[in-house]
Amino acid sequence: MAMTVHVDVVSAEEKIFSGLAEFVTLPGEAGELGILPGHTPLISRIKPGAVAIKVPNQEQPEYVFVNGGILEVQPNHVTVLADTAIRATDLDEAKALEAKKSAEEAMANSAGDMDVARAQAALLAEAAAKVALIQKLRKH
Length: 140
Hints:
Elements: E1 5-10, E2 15-21, E3 23-28, E4 31-35, E5 42-54, E6 62-74, E7 77-82, E8 85-87, H1 93-108, H2 114-139
Parallel strand pairs: 1-7
Antiparallel strand pairs: 1-2, 3-4, 3-5, 5-6, 6-7, 6-8
Helix pairs in contact: 1-2
């Protein structure tokens, strides 16, 4: 049996995933992070994107979309505290595409206010990450 680590993915609303995993990948603030059992302790902010959880005896990883949050890694436990977390199978492609389009239009029409531009860029990043995850799932 492969080595495993316990993984919890939680949001303010609910626990999305709790169980053993062979590895976890997710979008850290400084780039993509890969976590294996026995990983050095780590705390990192995470960006909007897909958390991939490789469950033992399951060919394809479980995917969860997170809209930012905090990652805590201990040698035998990984915790993802997400601002928002949605099971990839629950994502709505039409809504994600519409949100991406709206964010792109809002950015194109912004009057140069930096705070507004940052907020719009965050919305665009979230929508683009959702669309990317949906497209990745479609390939599997």
